[in-house]
Design brief:
Blueprint lengths: L2 E5 L4 E6 L4 H7 L10 E4 L5 H12 L3 E5 L4 E5 L7 E2 L1 H4 L9 H8 L1 E5 L12 H9 L3 E5 L2 E5 L8 E3 L5 H12 L4 E5 L5 H12 L3 E3 L5 E5 L7 E4 L4 H14 L1 E6 L7 H10 L2 E4 L3 E6 L9 E2 L11 H8 L5 E5 L9 H7 L3 E5 L2 E5 L8 E3 L3 H13 L3 E5 L2 H6 L3 H6 L4 E5 L3
Parallel strand pairs: 2-15, 3-14, 6-7, 10-11, 18-19, 22-23
Antiparallel strand pairs: 1-23, 1-24, 3-5, 4-5, 7-9, 8-9, 11-13, 12-13, 15-17, 16-17, 19-21, 20-21
Helix pairs in contact: 1-7, 4-6, 5-6, 6-7, 8-10, 8-12, 10-12
Bound molecules: uridine-diphosphate-N-acetylglucosamine (UD1).
The site of uridine-diphosphate-N-acetylglucosamine (UD1) has 22 residues, from helix 1, helix 5 and helix 6.
Length: about 425
Amino acid sequence: MDSILVTGNGPLNGQIPIAGAKNACLTLMPATLLSEEPLTLTNAPRLSDIKTMTALLQSLGAEVSSLQDGQVIAMSSHSLTSQTADYDIVRKMRASNLVLGPLLARFGQAVVSLPGGCAIGARPMDLHVEGLEALGAEVELKDGYLHAKAPGGLKGAVHQMRFASVGATENIVMAATLAKGTTVLKNAAREPEIVDLVECLRKMGAQISGEGTPTIEIQGVDRLHGATHQVVTDRIELGTYMLAPAICGGEVELLGGRMSLVESFAAKLDAAGVSVSETEGGLKVARKNGRVRAVDVVTEPFPGFPTDLQAQMMALMCTAEGTSVLEERIFENRFMHAPELVRMGAQIEVHGGTATVTGVERLKGAPVMATDLRASVSLILAGLAAEGETTVSRVYHLDRGYEHVVRKLEGVGAKIERIKGQ
Ligand code: UD1
């Protein structure tokens, strides 16, 4: 298994290009199942999660080609052969559940294994199921699989979600595009990836309004057609690399970044004493003198502070002046990076969903282990700011969500290399 060796070596300066969003791409790809005409995505990120989704779509009989070094994904679902998403693929990645809504809408049936994914909590699918049932589906759990049917087709309905789940919103919106009549989805999630999905569905002929607000209205249509769509910038990759100069000092421009994607996160950086400004090409982040100040963070659905940046923010707080409290409200088990950061000299106490971090002047390099996707990159950030060498093992987690990490960080002056495993 590969590992990553990081040697802390001072301020970072230069530019980092930000890729298309993993989480947007993972919901845009299943949208191909809604139409028999081709769907092409540009600005796709090169990640193992995208390969997993490719394999899943191919297992359903879709044609999926990766072009231009993986940045373009050309898909066609004109002759699908299966409506079953197998456990073997779904267990690798929770986002596999996003084929449920589209398959059900187009074929009136779908069988989808309950997902696996990051070990950061229970992550059930009840909210997906409730929404699809509101549209007239019958859903049954048998042998670890959800069996969904809508023999007479789905029918539009008014549905209020109990919690603004990102994946459930995506599944319900995709399903409703081909339902008969109007669906009004209340307490919908507002993440930029959902806005991106709706923009793509609209290009495919769907009639949708209200995306980016808590109420999304979908007028069902008989069929959707082909489209080409550019994947939105990855706000989590953006936020992660914004933290690199914040934790090491220096000045880095994040190419393709936009403030509207990371407003609440940028506000926390500002409060910590890190400057964030818009440039023609993206966002510029600078920390010139002294340590950052401790700030408190509560994770919330968009537009609140993203749970997917909590681990990385904790790495920054480990070297801040003062004590910060990080409260995780989205996932119940998302502090697995804390004991690893403690191995590097961090002072962290975790009680339930709250971590209290007292900053130290300097972290110390150590061998640490990545436990999930965002935890893995938080350890790399900590390593960049630590004295000496840090080896992060189990980097396959990292490959799920960050393309060319070594190249991107080397480009701004970091000492980082990938060590090939036996
Ligand atoms: C998506 C993102 C993930 C991010 C998360 C929250 C993708 C591929 N993944 O995941 O990176 O961390 O949003 O921003 O886009 N829940 C239920 N029942 C359900 C569905 C969810 O209880 O049916 C709970 C989950 O256990 C979790 C919370 O709701 O505690 C948020 O989950 P959700 O918004 O659905 O996240 P995902 O779509 O899985």
